[in-house]
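In response to reviewer comment 3 from the previous cycle, which asked for concrete evidence that the modeling workflow produces usable outputs, we include below a single protein chain processed end to end. The sequence was submitted unchanged, and the resulting structure tokens are shown without manual editing.
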Amino acid sequence: MYAERSIPVINDKNSDTFIRTLSSRLEDMEKDTKRKRIEKVIKRITNKK
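The workflow returned the following structure tokens.
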């Protein structure tokens, strides 16, 4: 799944859960590029609040 595609449907109700889920997967990311993409998504959702 591309986390970026989920951004339009993330709202105040589900943003905390989504951020927690993405954050928990960061440790398992093998490639630095994937990690940076996910961190960027987390930052965008956090700024959206």
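The radius of gyration is 10 Å. We consider this sufficient to address the reviewer's concern, and the full set will be provided in the supplementary archive.
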